[in-house]
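Hi there,

I know you've been waiting on this one. I reran it after we fixed the sequence typo, so this is the corrected version. Both the input and the resulting structure follow.
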Amino acid sequence: MSQPAAYHATHYRVRYSDTDKMGVVYHGNYLRLFEIGRTEYLRHRGLPYSQMEESGYMLPVLEAKCEFLLPARYDDLLEIRTVVEPLDGMRLTISYEIVRDSATLVRGWTRHTFVRSETFRPTRPPEFFLNVVGEQS
């Protein structure tokens, strides 16, 4: 993943409860790390996800992809690199790279759509989101 201007890094220390019997981070936990990266990206840009919900908008996940390259283990310090891709209409794709030191462990993305919380119907991105994140992110 190249590091464009919208790149944001979140640090995360692997907990014992993140690991499985093999002593590595359980694969399903990487989606949780993606969520941590996503929410911290928005918070860093001045838009906590709770503020979006208070304004009547949500971003449900439509699709997710993970590519597992190397294992993470208990007590590893990981960097979750998050990039919001340019908007595609009402769809938002967020890319992630999980790195330990200089090694990429996991790459992936999540695809979301904007919905109104009272109807759960797709809607265009709210203006305040575009102002904070930008149309070209």
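Quick highlight: The chain is about 20% helix and 35% strand.

Best,
R. S.
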